TrEMBL record, chain A:
GO terms for cellular component: plasma membrane. InterPro entries: ABC_transp_permease, BCAA_transport_permease. This is Branched-chain amino acid ABC transporter permease. GO terms for biological process: amino acid transport.
TrEMBL record, chain B:
Residues 46-378 form the Leucine-binding protein domain. Gene3D superfamilies: 3.40.50.2300. The lineage of its organism: Bacteria, Bacteria division WOR-3. It comes from the Bacteria. Keywords: Signal. This is ABC transporter substrate-binding protein. It holds the Pfam family Peripla_BP_6. The keyword Acyltransferase does not apply. Belongs to the leucine-binding protein family.
Length: 288, 419
């Protein structure tokens, strides 16, 4: 039973980690390699506001979230706008920004393992004989809620519809008067806010360390590669595949191979279907 | 009269300048410290060494044949604890200290065992003495010196190693078995060389001593969920969780353990739980965890009169208690070096090596002597006989030394759900 329950929980955690990255890529076609750095920076800002400036917890979390959205917007406005369309430059520029953010955090004092955010509700509950802490249940709810919000937002709001238009055909949407740069700016800001939200809910499970920036980026990339870059449905499917694969591997084979199996899944997908499960990027080439 | 006064003033000024110039001409003894400064095992040793250097310089410096020379510390970041950084980076850092910074001695790291082992050839090539004080726990280091003394005689280690630590753990487990009847062990270790080996040794030793080892779980670095392993431990009736991890994510494991109220006492080598701020940061989730910080003096204790003197001096300078493994040993290494240089009366490598081999100093964590053949610090549970280790337990906000009994400040407590 705990494989089922924790497989589900881990899948939702993975999807929450990756949603922001997938959103930015699907709309702006920008691979935001600063995703992991924004994740750690948001956690640290939240910690700083709560522990050092002693702001009330909800206020500190809200401001940290605002910080992540603003950081995303600034990264696009100042740097990525200049290299947009040149994939390699986008990757290099965003990765460099990510490293710079992480190293600034390290230099600024984020060293050691005692930086932790409090959980929303302490304690745990037994479900079908499996002990689960409340924070993980909240993450499941948040992740599901965010997916629903994203669906409603992209199908029933003007901005959301413009996002989808850009994602489907940028040139056609330009002809319809949709500002591509504005959409990209908003998508990066929104994707970063999603990433920040993930940080504020997932980081309380452990601690805030610079290294989490790299592992978060790897997880987000893994999910998006398996699911297909730019596909929200792909993110959900890939999160479930990887989440359950890791939990099952630990249960049936050994905890030692968790990461290996996940990486094998990525390699397998890249060989069999380079665009990922739901990706359409190279669909035509693949058919040929 | 005015002219005489002016001449006096000029004379005094010249005298002052002269003294200043003469002082400048006293060449300092340069200690190179290759450390992974972004990590606990890097910055805490750096702070400890700065404190020791400051104290020694305040006393006038190191006395070499009647001439007092100050110490100067040159710290370089080896980055060897950062993920993905190859050993060669750490070696380059050591080489830079030797060739560019012209250091006289090396104290501290490299921190990772692999890098420390590789650095032995380098210091041998340049004929520089190095005292390893942090990180490296592999018994291979002193075995290599013993097997090839002529080549590796330049390396010393004043900190304990995994072999001694395993014995310490077993003694504590035996006590737990006798006192509370805890005999089922689940081993959970990180997928890195020292942790895997540590886990294997503990499992083997535990089986030999009549414990039931339920399983050995190896977790890749970066694992963020331990629920399957903890549930298994719960279902199989584990009573001791033996951990060996230096990754930050081990904090997740401890939080999950506390949330799930697993009826197994966690103990081991857990880097994330060494720092004084750990209890507060986890909201008390890490309470009852038993941690090995290798050497005494890394938490407040009454080992020798110097122990609390060091703890208080560190606290005064850095605003917190000694932070974890590598702190007291790095502090002591500077004093060992000072004593050896003074004894040798020269900086000449061969003579200082001999002086270090013969050195017998009562330090922060007991009597400090190097084994003459392996250059490994001689361990003991009696501070009058050798270097004393430290195992502490988180009890409330305090790190209470519980082992060895001769210097313990408290007894091991069980969490409420295990009583």
């Amino acid at each position: 039973m705990y494989v089922l329950i924790y497989g589900l929980i881990n899948s939702f955690i993975l999807s929450l980690l990756s949603l922001g990255f997938a959103l930015v890529y699907s709309i702006a076609r920008l691979p935001n390699f600063a995703h992991g750095a924004i994740y750690v920076a948001t956690g640290y800002v939240g910690w700083f506001l709560f522990n050092r400036l002693l702001l009330p917890f909800p206020v500190a979390m809200f401001l940290a979230l605002l910080f992540s959205a603003l950081t995303g917007a600034l990264i696009y406005r100042i740097v990525l706008i200049k290299v947009r369309g040149m994939t390699l430059s986008e990757v290099i520029a965003s990765y460099a920004i990510g490293i710079a953010i992480l190293e600034i955090l390290r230099w600024g004092g984020l060293r050691g393992m005692t930086f932790m955010l409090p959980v929303l509700i302490p304690g745990s509950v037994e479900i079908l004989g499996v002990s689960i802490d409340y924070q993980r249940l909240i993450i499941v709810g948040l992740s599901a809620g965010l997916l629903l919000f994203l669906y409603l937002f992209t199908h029933h709001t003007k901005i959301g519809l413009s996002f989808r238009a850009i994602a489907q055909d940028e040139r056609a949407s330009l002809m319809l008067g949709i500002d591509s740069d504005k959409a990209a700016l908003l998508s990066l800001s929104m994707g970063s806010a999603f990433c920040g939200l993930a940080a504020l809910f997932i980081l309380p499970l452990g601690n805030i360390v610079v290294e989490a920036g790299y592992s978060t980026l790897i997880f987000a990339l893994a999910v998006c590669v398996v699911g297909g870059l730019g596909s929200t449905a792909g993110v959900v499917a890939a999160s479930f595949i990887l989440g359950f694969t890791q939990t099952l591997t630990e249960k049936l084979i050994s905890s030692h191979f968790q990461m290996v199996v996940a990486l094998l899944a990525i390699i397998g997908i890249l060989i069999l279907r380079p665009s990922g499960l739901f990706g359409k990027q190279k669909e035509l080439e693949e058919r040929v | 009269m005015k002219v005489i006064r002016k001449m006096w003033m000029i004379f005094i000024l010249i005298a002052f300048l002269g003294v200043g110039y003469a002082q400048q001409k006293v060449k300092p003894i340069v200690i190179g410290a290759p450390l992974s400064t972004a990590f606990l095992y890097g910055w805490a040793p750096e702070r400890a060494m700065k404190l020791a250097v400051e104290e020694i310089n305040e006393e006038g410096g190191v006395n070499i044949g009647g001439e007092k020379r100050p110490l100067r510390l040159e710290v370089i970041d080896t980055r060897d604890l950062e993920p993905g950084v190859p050993v060669s980076e750490a070696l380059l850092a050591v080489e830079k200290l030797i060739l560019e910074k012209k250091v006289d001695f090396l104290v501290g790291g490299p921190v990772r065992s692999e890098a420390a082992l590789a650095s032995m050839d380098l210091v041998s090539k340049y004929g520089k003495i190095q005292i390893i004080t942090t990180g490296c726990l592999t018994p291979l280091l002193h075995k290599r010196i013993e097997e090839n003394y002529e080549k590796y005689k330049y390396t010393f280690r004043n900190t304990s190693h995994a072999g001694v630590m395993s014995q310490d753990f077993m003694t504590v487990m035996e006590n737990l078995k006798n006192q509370y009847g805890l005999k089922k062990i689940m081993v959970m270790v990180q997928d890195v060389e020292h942790a895997r080996k540590g886990g294997e040794i503990i499992a083997k030793m535990a089986r030999e001593r009549g414990f039931e080892v339920l399983d050995i779980k190896i977790y890749p670095t970066g694992t963020t969920d331990y629920s399957v392993g903890l549930n298994e431990a719960k279902n199989k009736g584990a009573q001791i969780l033996f951990l060996w991890m230096d990754m930050p994510e081990s904090a997740i494991l401890l939080k999950q353990w506390a949330e799930m109220k697993v009826k197994a006492l966690p103990m081991g080598f857990v880097c994330a739980a060494e720092q004084p701020g750990f209890y507060k940061a986890t909201g008390g989730k890490g309470e009852y965890l038993i941690v090995h910080v290798v050497n005494g003096g890394n938490v407040p204790a009454d080992i020798t009169p110097w122990t609390m003197k060091f703890v208080k001096a560190y606290e005064k300078k850095w605003g917190l208690e000694p932070e974890g493994y590598g702190t007291s040993s790095s502090y002591m290494a500077v004093y060992q070096l000072k004593a050896a240089i003074e004894k040798a009366g020269t900086l000449e490598t061969g003579k200082v090596i001999k002086a270090l081999e013969e050195l017998d100093l009562m330090g922060v964590y007991g009597r400090m002597r190097f084994d003459k053949r392996s250059h490994q610090i001689i361990p003991s549970h009696d501070p009058k006989e050798g270097a004393v280790p430290c195992i502490f337990q988180w009890q409330g906000e305090r790190r209470v030394q519980v082992f060895p009994e001769s210097v313990a400040r408290g007894k091991i407590l069980l969490p409420p759900w295990m009583r």
